[in-house]
Specification:
heterodimer, B: six-stranded antiparallel beta sheet, elongated
Chain lengths: ~80, ~700
């Protein structure tokens, strides 16, 4: 992957609270974007597949932790 | 920065491209000490073509792509070769770059375009591979191949797959960062006005940060979220959910259409702007055509007058020299004579001063005159003879004394220091005349070149072009209004979409099922918000970094640096140079060019890559001492960077002598010992007698 170092470190070093699982998902999204060859509907399918795989992998506690962070992220100003 | 991140372009080979017919090679410095190579050529000679060919070879795109509506027939492939092409025949144009790393040759990249004439046609069409209008019966195909290292086998092997070539080169030379390795010096003028430079700064920040990929991620995540939401709502909310999903689809479709309209209009605006500029250029040429003859006449008169003045001055110099050189020579001779007299006197070879003895002898001799005539053997005769000798001797002494006095006077009057002073002043004036004449000749040459580049007969007249230009301008206004309307419409539609999304969200929530889908939507929403925050953060970070690095170069290199306290990039991306009380300081032309170069140097630092730097026309739009200032910066502040400068003859070889101390740029770069080689793009003949541009090393 040839994602700019500035972007990569900014996402990864942004905040200690960001769950590693979210960063993993974002990295996978970046990989898809970096190829620059997929159309909108292909990307939808791939994004959804990544999310599906991630959710399947999560244990209950981890899922709860990730979802809590997501909800806080959405509601925080 | 690692050594791996350092690439140099060692050689370029051009075959049948632009004004170059046949094969032409140019070698660039890979010497870290003598790191500058100069490529000189007058306007229209092929400097920018060469610069653009390097870009095309590296990235497979044109540096300045033309629009379909272009009026220009000159493109990638040497135009006369395309014109001469017979049906069924082919002609190939290619560019090969030899790219080195610290160990030597690393890649040999060749990009070519082959034109085949399929049939006779009288019409012309725009060809995107040739970046110009070409005969409709010609088809052009491009190819790219690269010889590169095989780490397992050693040596070089050839790769023809463009995607593999791109993947190999992209980490070193991302196209987004092309501005910082292949810089168009004409942009430097924009740094005189923060408003004009803003676009460059924003674009630079975007490119440096790679933000487009973040924007793309946000768009995709939003889209996926909507898709999941629609499907889930259909499943969870029955007919309500289905209706909402359809409403969302409709709004999305409307947004897509509005965006399409906006993009189409933006493309049209961009194309029309380019065409407008082309027409303006053509108009200028035509308008110039009306008075270029007058301007040539004026310049020829100036040159004639200068030559006349120089001749007058030379006559003055001659007269001075004719008058003063003998004086100096006489002085020299007489100084020697004085020495000789002193020596003879010392040796008593010249008589002493008239003595009392001599006078007595004379008196007694006179007293002896007693009324009778002396006879020859008379004792008195002998005595008188002795007196006579004494008189002669005494006359000689007097003459000698008088002569010596005269000699001293002449020697003193000659004043050699004053003669030297006057001569030096005359010599300085001669130098000024010589330079002015050289400069006037340069300008005259420019005008001749301009006259040569005027549109050929049959081209559109000034009035026709003027009408086209006015129509385009009016059209541009309408297009701009359409773009604004589309933007407003999109905003409204987005609001509607948000409302529908909210209802969909409620439907899903009330449905009480589909937890995974709800979580997917939540995760995507959180990722979008997080990415937007990161985007803002990165933009701000990059602005600070760009400000810091630009400031560093600017403060050490700007002329009259004591007048400045720092460079600031404001929150709305205005780049400002501040004085010691923090007020914005207006920049001179030279200072604004230095600010532009500082920005480029600073951004290169952020990329952490020590790549080559080609600058097309770094001295364009500036004159006199400002060129000197820019040359100083180029020679001093990027010591290890491979720099290739594309300049015109008048920019490089001549000083305008408007201000004291101004010298030709070459006189600044050469003594800095940074110049490796200087080339001139000239006119040559191929072996088979065709006219072509060519590279010649300057001695």
């Amino acid at each position: 992957m040839t994602i700019n170092q500035i972007i990569s470190s900014n996402f990864h070093d942004a905040d200690d609270d960001v769950p590693a699982e979210i960063l993993e998902i974002i990295d996978k999204f970046f990989e898809i974007e970096d190829t620059g060859t997929y159309g909108e509907s292909s990307k939808d399918k791939m994004y959804e597949q990544i999310l599906k795989n991630a959710l399947q992998k999560f244990e209950e506690a981890k899922r709860k932790k990730v979802m809590t962070w997501c909800k806080e992220q959405i509601t925080n100003d | 920065m690692t050594e791996k991140d350092s690439l140099l372009i060692h050689k370029i080979e051009i075959i049948n491209c632009g004004g170059f017919r046949g094969k032409h090679e140019l070698e660039f410095s890979i010497d870290k000490q003598k790191n500058i190579t100069v490529v000189m050529g007058e306007s229209g000679r092929g400097k920018s073509t060469t610069f653009g060919l390097i870009y095309w070879c590296l990235y497979g795109k044109f540096f300045k792509p033309k629009q379909k509506s272009t009026l220009i027939d000159e493109g990638l492939i040497h135009k006369p070769l395309l014109n001469e092409l017979e049906v069924g025949k082919k002609v190939t144009a290619s560019v090969t770059l030899t790219i080195n790393d610290q160990n030597g040759e690393k890649y040999v990249l060749t990009r070519s375009a082959t034109a085949t004439k399929l049939r006779e046609e009288s019409q012309k069409k725009f060809d995107e591979f040739n970046n110009s209008r070409i005969n409709s019966g010609i088809q052009i195909e491009t190819e790219c191949k690269m010889r590169m290292e095989d780490e397992r086998e050693g040596g070089l092997y050839t790769e023809r797959e463009e995607s593999i070539i791109n993947n190999e080169l992209r980490p070193f030379l991302p196209r987004d960062l092309s501005d910082f390795v292949l810089f168009d010096g004409e942009k430097l003028i924009k740094f005189q006005n923060p408003e004009d430079a803003k676009e460059i700064i924003i674009d630079g920040i975007q490119k440096l940060s790679g933000l487009p990929i973040v924007e793309s991620l946000i768009t995709s995540a939003e889209h996926t979220r909507t898709q999941i939401r629609k499907i889930t709502a259909k499943q969870a909310g029955g007919s309500d959910g289905d209706a909402l999903a359809r409403a969302l689809d409709n709004v999305d479709e409307e947004i897509k259409t509005a965006k399409g309209k906006q993009t189409e209009n933006e493309k049209l605006r961009s194309g029309n702007r380019i065409l407008y500029n082309e027409i303006q250029e053509a108009m200028n040429k035509t308008k110039a055509g009306k008075d270029v003859g007058t301007r040539i006449g004026v310049q020829e008169t100036t040159l004639k007058n200068l030559k006349k003045q120089e001749k007058k001055h030379n006559d003055e110099v001659k007269e001075f020299l004719f008058k003063k050189i003998p004086e100096l020579l006489i002085r020299e001779t007489l100084l020697n004579s004085q020495k000789d007299f002193a020596r003879l006197e010392e040796l008593q070879k010249i008589p002493p001063s008239i003595s009392s003895e001599g006078i007595d002898k004379l008196r007694s001799a006179l007293m002896c005159v007693c009324g009778r005539e002396f006879e020859k053997d008379d004792k008195a005769w002998v005595e008188l003879g002795r007196v006579k000798e004494t008189i002669i001797d005494s006359d000689t002494v007097a003459s000698i004394s008088q002569g010596r006095g005269l000699i001293s006077q002449i020697v003193d009057q000659a004043q050699p220091e004053k003669i030297n002073e006057k001569y030096n002043s005359l010599d300085d004036t001669s130098t000024v005349f010589a330079r002015q004449i050289k400069l006037a000749k340069g300008s005259l040459y420019d005008l001749y070149e301009e006259r040569r580049s005027l549109p050929s007969e049959g081209a559109e007249s000034y009035d026709q072009l003027d009408k086209k230009s006015r129509d385009l301008w009016t059209g541009l206004g309408t297009i701009q209004a359409d773009i604004e309307d589309a933007k407003l419409e999109i905003e409204k539609l987005k609001d509607t979409r948000n409302e529908i999304n909210k209802k969909l969200e409620d439907t899903i929530t009330h449905g009480g099922k589909h937890q995974d889908d709800k979580d997917k939507i939540t995760i995507l929403e959180a990722i979008v918000k997080f990415s937007e925050e990161r985007k803002e953060e990165i933009t701000s970070l990059l602005r600070d970094l760009t400000e810091e690095t630009t400031n560093e170069y600017f403060m050490k290199s700007v002329p009259q640096k004591e007048e400045f306290s720092k460079v600031e990039i404001s929150s709305n991306y205005d780049i400002l140079a501040l004085d010691d009380v923090g007020d914005t300081k207006e920049l001179s032309m030279g200072q604004s060019h230095v600010l532009g170069l500082s920005y480029v140097f600073g951004c290169r630092r952020i990329t952490e890559k020590n790549m080559f730097l080609f600058i097309d026309s770094p001295l364009h739009n500036i004159s006199g001492k400002y060129r000197n200032e820019v040359a100083e910066v180029l020679s001093k502040y990027l010591p290890d960077v491979q720099i290739i400068l594309f300049v015109t003859e008048s920019e490089y070889l001549f000083a305008e002598l408007r201000e004291e101390g101004e010298v030709p740029v070459r006189d600044i770069l050469r003594p800095s010992n940074k110049i490796w080689k200087e080339y001139e793009i000239g006119k040559c003949e191929t072996e088979d007698g065709y006219s072509t541009r060519c590279f010649e090393e300057m001695k």
